[in-house]
Amino acid sequence: MPVKKLTNIDLLGQTIKIIYKDIDEGDWGQCDIDERTITLNNKCLKDKKHHWATLVHEVTHMVFELSGVAYMDRNDEEAYVRCVENLLIPWILENQNLLQ
Ligand SMILES: [Zn+2]
CB 3.0–4.6 Å: which of 23, 63, 74, 97 could bond 41 by disulfide? Predict the structure, then answer.
């Protein structure tokens, strides 16, 4: 089943544009803070789960960049992004029952 393309998403009150294109070097996605744009590789459209996972990954980059965390002297942003997407977000999704 093909994934429905997004045109934009709302992120904490900001509109983030979503673009689909073929990206070189096997990257799944890119995040451009200045343009408030997330680019997703066309190959994401083949699989709902890849599409969701890549969107979550790039949204996490955008959050770190909007928050300023990405601009620390030593930028370990990719590690933080992976921590949030692999540990925090799955836990939140699995534990929504705790939201009373
Ligand atoms: Zn990344």
Answer: 23
C-alpha of residue 58 to centroid of ligand 1, in Å: 7
1-44: pLDDT as tens digits: 779 999 999 998 899 999 999 988 778 999 999 999 999 999 99
Distance from Cα 94 to the centre of ligand 1, integer Å: 23
Q: Average pLDDT for residues 78-82, to the nearest whole number?
A: 88
Q: Which residues contact 54 (CB under 8 A, 6 or more apart)?
A: 28, 29, 40, 41, 44
| pLDDT over 70, % of the chain | 99
What's the N-to-C CA distance of the chain in angstroms?
34
Place of tokens 């959050």: 63
Ligand 1 centroid, distance to 80 Cα (angstroms): 9
Distance in angstroms (rounded) separating the CA atoms of residues 38 and 26: 16
Q: How far is CA 85 from CA 2, 24, 37, 38, 78, in A?
A: 23, 23, 19, 16, 10
